[in-house]
Amino acid sequence: MKKLLNLICFLTIGIASFAQDPDASQLHETAKQFMRGGDWTNAVLVLNKALAKDPQNISIQKDIALTYYYQRDFAKARETVKPLVEREDADVPTYQIAGNIYKALAERKDAEKMYKKALKKYPNSGPLYAEYGELLWMMNENFTSIEQWELGIKSDPGYAGNYYFAARYYYFTTDKVWALVYGEIFVNMESYTSRTAEVKNLLLDSYKKFFVIDPKAKPAKQDNDFTKAFTAVMNQNSSVINSGITTESLTMLRTRFLLDWNKDYAAKFPFRLFDHQKQLLQEGMFEAYNQWIFEAAGDLAKYESWTKLNTEQYNEFTRFQKSKLFKVPAGQYYKSTN
């Protein structure tokens, strides 16, 4: 009899728990699961249920706007996000969502106005500079776009996106120093994405063009002391690439560059990228590093062959590359420093 009573109590409690109305946070979590699975219709349905329980919750509202965006219902997405960017508690992701919605609707002037407001509120946000610069690029305001990416690099040096856009910009000018520097910083920050492969190709091609002035390229701005030093050290070691740019000749060029740079300029221009290269050189991984960047970009089959012939070296470098966090510290910005 006692067992029967216990069983009845257990079932009663279980049914009551099952029937209990979920709160806003529980509904929001359920909606996020639908979002992760790409079930946008169910996500909107549950998010609206959650919002009814907590009408001022900006996180729920952001997810509603984002879900409409992914559904390509841009009008509803704009209707949802527009009041959010006016709120005091609007954060960087709120402005990012709004920017994507405005860009999808080709409402670029509204987007520009919104980014300017956002950057007044968050003047050190790398993502906002990156996306505002991208918008300006879409509006064919190329020189203004690079100003935003440079501000992003200076203000938030740990964010990869501005290095990506800036490297691509400088690639199409005569300013190959910064295509090389920013491109290599980027592949160390974001090492295994489709953008990484793109920038590796850019780096290889930039080295091929570094010693040649392209008459069709846009002129570079005035050189500064860092740029002059970088160019001088490259030029004084350029004899090693007289027979062409290959991974082997680049490894030799960059090794000599590092030795001379550390002797003559490292104290004046402390730089995370060159410190990273120096560490790889000292620990016997610099060849693998250069193979990973340049051979993988130039001849993937040859790179795969190298990895098989140098398995231990490849594995050691891969472990290191995947375990380290590459971050440029504040104060190492030399683009506009004389």
TrEMBL record:
Glycoprotein found in the keyword field: no
Q: Which PROSITE patterns match?
A: TPR
Q: Which domain of life is it from?
A: Bacteria
The record's listing under Pfam families reads: TPR_19, TPR_6
**Which InterPro entries would you find in this protein's record?**
TPR-like_helical_dom_sf (IPR011990), TPR_rpt (IPR019734)
Would I find Signal among this entry's keywords? yes
User: Which Gene3D superfamilies does the record associate with it?
Assistant: Tetratricopeptide repeat domain
Q: Where are the TPR repeats?
A: 92-125
Keyword annotations of the record: Signal, TPR repeat
From the Swiss-Prot or TrEMBL record, give the protein name: Tetratricopeptide repeat protein
Organism name: Lacibacter sediminis
Signal sequence region: 1-19
